[in-house]
Amino acid sequence: MAKAFRELLMVKRVIYGIAILTLLTALSLYVILFSPFEYDQISYNVRLPPLTRSDTTWPYIFGTDNLGRDVFTRTFYAFILDVSCGLAIVTLSGLVGLVIGLISGYLGGFVDLILMRLMDIVISIPGFMLAIAIAAVLGSNIVNAILAVVIVTIPIYARLVRSVVLSVKESLFVLAAKEAGLSDVRIVTRHILPHAIPIFITQATMELSNAIIYIAALSFIGLGAQEPTPEWGLMISMARRYIREAWWPALFPGLVMFLTVLSFNLIGDGLRDYLDPKKRLSFRVLG
Amino acid sequence: MKPLEVKKLTVEYMMYRGWVEVVSNADLEINERDEILAIVGESGCGKTTLGLTIAGLLPSNARVVHGYVKVFGKDVNSGSAKVAMIFQDALTSLNPLLTVGDQIAEIYIHHFAMSKKEAFEEAMKRLAEVGLQASFINKYPHELSGGQRQRVLIAMVIALRPELIVADEPTTALDVTTQAKVLNLLKSIVKGKGIPMVYITHDLALVAHIADKIAVMYAGQVVEYREKLALFKDPLHLYTQALLSSLPRVDVELSELRTIRGEPPVPGNFPKGCRFSPRCPKAFSRCFVEEPRIKNVGNGYVRCHLYE
Amino acid sequence: MSNGVLVKTVGLKKYYEVRSMFLKRVVGYVKAVDGVDLEIRRGETLGLVGESGSGKSTLGLVLAKLVEPTSGIYIFNGIDITQRFPKALRGKIRIVFQDPYSALNPRLKIKESVVEPLMAQGLDRDEALEKAVDYLKLVGLSEEHLEVYPHMLSGGQRQRVVVARALITEPEFIILDEPTSMLDVSTQAQMLELLKDVKVEKNLTYLFITHNLAVARYISDTIAIMFAGQIVEIGTKNTIFNNPLHPYTKTLLSAYPPPDPEFQWTPEIPEDTSSIDSSYRQGCRYAGRCPLKIDDCLKSMPELIEVERSHSVRCHLYKT
């Protein structure tokens, strides 16, 4: 396992991704601990350009927004929020999808039929429509936005895991495990699940970027985070109105979001490459 | 012009730890047009690689380090030698979307610039030669049994009008009854059409009936190269002897099989000195240190310190 | 059970349904195992010989209780286990598969694979590991092999692990489905010797399934020849090889080249003129290929009849 991890780190993309991510996380923690500004601290210093002096130890590094709040501070609070939301989404939908995929793939038959048709229905629901529906019934807030995204992304994991289960199910070592007398549950956890995990993690990493974008998008159209929550989509949405007078409250959240998503993509992409062609470039050339 | 001349051939493969020698200094030849040379060995001995090299089909992650392979005087890599290869798995060698007739005729259309009509006429002749009825011309590979597919492959190989055929375990995946039929077919092609063949197999019993000359390979080297009768009457190399006495027999009641301790070494991990020394019952001090050179015996040779 | 019969089957059948594409109606059956009566005595090795499609592997799976038979009775040590397979007996019947490369989970260490059958029985893990060491040593491996992964072992070593895994529940009956077919000749010899030694040491009974008559001759006490789901000839090793009766047996024997270049090898393999679909034929299954068929052969299915002591054959050419 450790050896595998070390080999993974040899993929350049992964290193770049982790580097950017570490930098951003470090910055965020630093901001939360040491920034002289609160994320919701309104002031009269509205729309000041980046690097304007303030009357605290820090300048307004990214400038201020329409309500005089420090964009730098808010951008990095948003990092924590958005990434946490992304993680929550991926964890929840991933786990539910994993379980559905395992059950559906292993049991087959009627159970598989029903579950997969259900997944088909869910995946054909446009995420935004669902979010609007949920918002209409339960209100617009970030928790409901997360709920909508979770529901809509479950099928991705379910299908992926199910396909792995189907292929592993027919392996001789699974038949051997049955022959050894293992219960179905034991077989799934011991033999089938470990084969599904690597692909699952790769997909989850890629989905993490999508989840962040989803939340930001929902917040952008007003269905997710509400003021004064520091959230990238919301910040950009608010900044749009006065973008002619101040470009910085829209640009910087977008830039940091871009870098965050990029880093997760790099890691996920590297993971995927690590898992696949490595097996092909194997040493089984001889006959 | 000798049909086949392999001289001091050494082939390496690129593995994750670098270039690894897989065939070492192989010397082989076929002298007559209707001769079958069998290459016998277990997995990892390099016989498939040797076969691929002779057919000019080495993949890009392999290279010939030194030595050469010449078919009728022409180097196999020059492109002018016509060597055809029969692989073990007939199912994946055939295009599942084309009929048998299409696949055989294709050869005539592309290689020999025949018209479709002529190509199909020739294809019918080939089918007859391999013992398949004319109705097979419209069948798809999945409609055929393993033995039938192998025959189609053989028909395609004949259609190519090769100067030499390399057959890599062509009957291993077949039932024993089918195997016998396909073997007879191959033999009749060699003797009847005068196309020399290199027959690669792990089955020593089979070799006794199909080969004229036999090369025994172990750990990348040809350890014994003899005429068939000589080899079976008087096997020289300890590995050949061990192989022969570890075969269960249909015709003889055996009370025990003589086993060789240990396992064949893997390329990259070949022992120092004689590669068979760790397992050889008669190994002595020199064997562990120095690689034995070829010692000519009759029309062949053996690679063993006991005979130097 | 009387006179030491450990395994007995009566009329064992396994039919697979063939369904049409559209409405999934049953249009026919693949009769993989079609009426097999067997008796294997304690301590005996029955060599089951057949080519691909003969049903030998399916029969092995049925006897290993991995596949439910369509009909028939399976008696083990006097107990009918056709419907109910008591937990106490589960470790007593084990199977060794053909492919050592796929039989072990590549992500599990050897020790995990070997103790697995004991874990299923609820044995304490430390005890199980101790047993694992004992059995690895029994098959010629060492304690160090516990900690490695399958890909670090050769095919022969992996197959030894599979054997250890089968032995660890202290079975009485082991089904070996072509255990040496994927091994090199020299490795095969080692494995056959190992199986012989282990059988004596652990008082085992074997069903050895193979397509290789030479291997069957070497390891078996009795030999059964299987064709199209049925046993067509069964007898002791001597009777079968000294006096083969069924035309198929004779064909098989002639198809094996002995490693002797001076032996005039002339295999008599008749052409197969039958269609593959056997579910509609009423006569002998082999009639399509048999060079010696008579009228009766197309009309009725011959029974398995004892022709001489310990030698039965299913063929109309032989009537008592």
UniProtKB/TrEMBL annotation, chain A:
Record bears the keyword Transport: yes
Membrane topology term: Multi-pass membrane protein
Keywords associated with the record: Cell membrane, Membrane, Transmembrane, Transmembrane helix, Transport
Protein name: ABC transporter permease
Keyword Flavoprotein in annotation: no
PROSITE patterns, A to Z: ABC_TM1
Segments crossing the lipid bilayer: 14-37, 76-103, 115-136, 142-161, 246-268
Similarity field: Belongs to the binding-protein-dependent transport system permease family.
Biological process terms in GO annotation: transmembrane transport
GO CC term (a single one): plasma membrane
Compartments reported by the entry: Cell membrane
TrEMBL record, chain B:
Record carries keyword Translocase: yes
CDD domains (alphabetical): ABC_NikE_OppD_transporters
GO CC annotations, alphabetized: plasma membrane
Gene Ontology molecular function terms on file: ATP binding; ATP hydrolysis activity
Primary site of residence: membrane
Keyword Transmembrane on entry: no
Bilayer disposition of the protein: Peripheral membrane protein
Gene3D superfamilies: P-loop containing nucleotide triphosphate hydrolases
Superkingdom field: Archaea
Gene Ontology BP terms: peptide transport
ABC transporter domain sequence ranges: 6-244
Pfam families: ABC_tran (PF00005), oligo_HPY (PF08352)
Localization terms from the record: Cell membrane
Key words, A-Z: ATP-binding, Cell inner membrane, Cell membrane, Membrane, Nucleotide-binding, Translocase, Transport
NCBIfam families: oligo_HPY
Name this polypeptide is given: ABC transporter ATP-binding protein
Organism expressing this protein natively: Ignisphaera aggregans
Automatic annotation (TrEMBL), chain C:
Keyword Cell membrane: no
Domain ABC transporter: 18-253
Coiled coil: none
SMART domains per record: AAA
Highest taxon, organism lineage: Archaea
One record GO biological process: peptide transport
Pfam families, per the entry: ABC_tran (PF00005), oligo_HPY (PF08352)
UniProt keyword Transferase, yes or no: no
Molecular function GO terms recorded: ATP binding; ATP hydrolysis activity
Assigned keywords, A-Z: ATP-binding, Nucleotide-binding, Transport
Family of the protein in this entry: Belongs to the ABC transporter superfamily.
Protein name from the UniProt record: ABC transporter ATP-binding protein
